[in-house]
Write a structure and sequence with these properties.
23 strands
């Protein structure tokens, strides 16, 4: 089972504990925009991501505070990131750690940039890119790193409508991606190293789209801590997700897997809630939360006579569950690199 998204957490058993908010909390908004027209393509991206994880290695769990807005792209969030004075719309991703641009137009170094002499190549579950590596001034959420390592794509696939990625995952995920570097510090790593933030903590607030909207600036990233105005309380303990979750859901709701879209589909509107347990806390999604809004059917080419859920089968071996954007739109998430933990909270 997984909730479809580009921004996702592959989960097996991760710890979660509260992170205290610091005194200052500047906010950076995130924008949510739809740049896909095929549900099947979205499902296939998620399946490819799971297969890539299982075929390579198991996923390891990935203050002065600054925050800002990001845009909901219906299946991903993008943020405006300044590189050498130019602004790029980059996918926010905790499942990868490199930062790069140039998917739509050239992103070569500016007058403030400096070549590292290295080449870079990264494959994702939903695409890939390759190019050259350089350092330049990068700004995001009111914070700046003067010598951030950046990939300039000379080739990319799977990134329509966005300029690249800003990665917030563990630095170990950059190992082997740049030819002349063992690992590459992330933007968050560098902010922490230079003292701009007092903890390597990323707080993430997403919100669902309204009606048929596919381009809302309704999300928020907080760098260095959390924004407590977006949360009720955190869950503690370990996360255990049943591999048969999708099958249990379909049995309980009399649904089935749709061959055309790959999503769970129903001939009558389901009334059962869907719950995921983290530690001792079960987070529940109602049908209104896990069903694809009928107002978006025309965007994705779905049949008006059926009901579709943002849920589908992730397989039965290895890592088979992704907690994705459609869950995260209703629950706040925190990625605490300093203490090697992940936390979830009920959003308010």
């Amino acid at each position: 089972m997984f909730f479809v998204t580009v921004f996702a957490i592959a989960a097996a058993a991760v710890s979660a504990s509260p992170v205290k908010r610091q005194a200052q909390t500047p906010v950076l908004s995130l924008k949510h925009v739809s740049n896909v027209t095929s549900i099947k393509n979205i499902v296939n991206r998620g399946q490819t991501r799971i297969n890539g994880i299982n075929g390579i290695r198991a996923v390891r769990p990935t203050l002065d505070v600054s925050s800002g807005s990001v845009t909901n792209k219906d299946v991903s969030y993008v943020a405006p990131v300044s590189v050498g004075g130019n602004t790029w719309q980059l996918i926010v991703n905790t499942g990868s750690s490199g930062t790069w641009c140039g998917a739509q137009s050239s992103c070569e170094k500016t007058s403030t940039g400096k070549s590292t002499g290295g080449s870079v190549s990264v494959s994702y579950g939903s695409g890939s890119f390759s190019g050259t590596e350089y350092t330049d001034t990068v700004s995001f959420g009111g914070l700046t790193v003067s010598s951030q390592s950046i990939g300039a794509a000379s080739r990319s696939t799977g990134f329509s409508g966005v300029d690249g990625i800003i990665g917030f995952g563990p630095v170990s995920l950059t190992q082997g991606t740049v030819s002349n570097a063992n690992t590459v510090p992330t933007f968050l790593d560098n902010l922490y190293s230079q003292g701009s933030i007092s903890a390597e903590v990323l707080g993430v607030s997403f919100r669902p789209e309204s009606g048929s909207d596919t381009d809302d600036t309704n999300g928020e990233l907080t760098l260095g801590g959390i924004d407590s105005t977006n949360i009720a309380s955190f869950t503690n303990g370990t996360t255990t997700l049943a591999s048969s979750a999708s099958g249990i859901f379909l049995t309980a709701t009399s649904g089935k897997t749709d061959s055309s879209s790959g999503l769970a589909v129903f001939t009558t509107k389901p009334t059962s809630n869907f719950g995921i347990k983290f530690g001792s806390t079960t987070y529940t999604l109602t049908p209104a939360q896990y069903l694809v809004p009928t107002a978006q059917y025309s965007v994705f080419g779905l049949s008006s006579s059926k009901y579709y859920a943002w849920i589908n089968d992730g397989g039965s071996s290895g890592v088979n569950t992704i907690i994705g954007q459609k869950f995260l739109e209703y629950y706040y998430s925190v990625y605490d690199t300093t203490n090697s933990r992940i936390g979830f909270a009920t959003a308010v």
